[in-house]
Amino acid sequence: MPQRFRGSGAKGQKRKQMPIVVKRAAERAAASLRSLFPERRILIESGDGHRSIRIGTHAQLMGLGTAAMIAGWMTVSTVNGVAADKAADTQAQADLARMAAQVQALKADTAALKGTVATTAERIEARQQFLDALLTGKARGAALADLLPRTTRKVSAEVAAAAGVLAPFAALEQKQLALVDKASATAETRLRDAEALIGRLGLNPGRFIAQSAGRFTQTGLGGPYMPAGNVAGGTDPRFAELFVNWQRVEQLEEAMASLPSFVPAKSYTLTSSYGVRYDPFNGRAAQHAGLDMAGSHGEPIFAAAAGRVVRAGRFGAYGNAIDIDHGRGIVTRYGHLSSISVTEGQRVGIGERIGGMGSTGRSTGTHLHYEVRIDGQPVNPRPFIESSRYLLAYSQEKAGPEMGSAQ
Predict the structure, then answer these.
(1) What is the DSSP letter of 235?
(2) What is the pLDDT, as a whole number, of residue 319?
(3) How large is the average pLDDT for residues 94-115?
(4) 300, 289, 298, 367: which is closest to 333 by C-alpha?
(5) How many CA atoms lie within 13 A of 403 on its CB side?
(6) Among residues 251, 257, 264, which one has the least CA distance to residue 332?
(7) What is the pLDDT of residues 177-218, one digit of tens each?
């Protein structure tokens, strides 16, 4: 028991001493603060005297704390502001990047649109030049082939549709294509008519236009001509097809211009036809190679087609005779003439006077013996005379000028 009381007394003594220690520590701290922030007096002078303001340690500590709080607040605000500014700058930079990308896209679209308009205009202009040369006959053969419009790359439909500037071009192109269709139909009609007329003459149109192995044709008639198989590469297909058809028409009609189409005598009576007849001298059957066209002595005789004189003089039973080579294996012969107005090697035009009707050679009276020879063999001249009006039309009119009215 006595021990317990003594122990309890020691603990109680310590409890009593603790406030004293705290108090002494506080006093020491206060003394330190008073030494760091001693009481200060501020003397203020004025006209009527002077007075002093006392600033104690406590007031100084309060001011210092307030200043520290303000400084801390400003620091936090500055940091937050800098962070906000950085975020705003980042967003602004992202917005600028997006706008720059949009500007570049607009530039690209504009450039594509400019290219589209220029390409379309060039294509239409090339087509127009080709159609003008073809339909007016300003260019033929290789010269026309050089004008063939080429195919062009297709442009962005989105760009063209968005701009809407190609609408006038589209309308013009539709008119051009409609004209191409009309010209193609005209060429096909003329081609069929020419082939039919040549067929009535007993000739094969294939001798004038040789078919190639492919889709396109080339002529074997001579002169400048580019096979359409070569022309077609990179060429607008519809225009290439028109070019080929028109070339065939031109070549066939040019060949027809060399066919005998002008009646060699204006006033005559047909006294003997082509083929088997009774010979007027011996009365036996004989092959007659031409037509006998009786008339008055000296009646003018005309060239049935343009060509070159290859014979002009006496020629056996024909008496005074003239042979004219019209090209493509076609020759006309005029016999029993009373006079000859041309010389060998001379070029003559269709309907040009070449001599006079007579009765020289093996003849019973004044007449013209008229022959048409193909590749050296005589053929019946009568179909040529009967088709004279149509053949003359082909020799006087070319395909181009006729289609010029179709525009």
Answers:
(1) B
(2) 95
(3) 64
(4) 289
(5) 27
(6) 264
(7) 888 888 888 888 888 888 888 888 888 887 777 443 333 333
Q: Does 406 score more than 60 pLDDT?
A: no
Domain-embedded: residue 292: yes
Pairing status of strand 377-379 against strand 367-374: antiparallel
Q: Please enumerate in sequence order all residues whose Cβ is within 8 A of that of 78, keeping only pairs 6 or more positions apart, or say none.
A: none
| Number of folded domains that form the chain | 2
Measured in Å, how far apart are the chain's first and last C-alpha atoms?
144
Q: What is the mean pLDDT of the chain?
A: 74
* Predicted model pTM: 0.56
Residue 230: its pLDDT value, please?
45
User: Do 237 and 195 fall into the same domain?
Assistant: yes
DSSP readout, 30-94?
HHHHHHHS--EEEEEEETTEEEEEEE-HHHHHHHHHHHHHHHHHHHHHHHHHHHHHHHHHHHHHH
* CATH code assigned at 319: 2.70.70.10
> Is the pLDDT confidence value at 321 over 80?
yes
Is residue 243 located within the same domain as residue 110?
A: yes
Q: How far apart are CA 190 and CA 125, in angstroms?
A: 27
- Residue 395 in contact with residue 256, Cβ under 8 Å? yes
In a domain, 55, yes or no: no
- Residue 148 in contact with residue 243, Cβ under 8 Å? yes
> Which domain, by its residues, includes 128?
97-261+387-407
Is residue 157 pLDDT above 60, yes or no?
no
3-state secondary structure of 325: strand
* Contact predicate 325/303, CB 8 Å: no
Q: Does a structural domain hold residue 203?
A: yes
Q: Are 357 and 274 contained in the same domain?
A: yes
Sequence-distant (6+) residues with CB within 8 A of 257 are 305, 306, 394, 395
Please indicate, yes or no, whether residues 372 and 285 belong to a single structural domain of this protein. yes
| Residue 204 and residue 277 in one domain | no
Structural contact between residues 405 and 186, judged by C-beta atoms closer than 8 angstroms: no
CA distance to 54, 66, 371, per residue, from 70 (Å): 24, 6, 131
As a whole number of angstroms, the distance between CA 224 and CA 64 comes to 110
Q: Are residues 309 and 226 in the same domain?
A: no
Residue 326 domain-assigned? yes
- How distant, in Å, are the alpha carbons of 147, 187, 295 from that of 237? 14, 16, 57
Helix, strand, coil tally for the chain in percent (to 5): 50, 20, 30
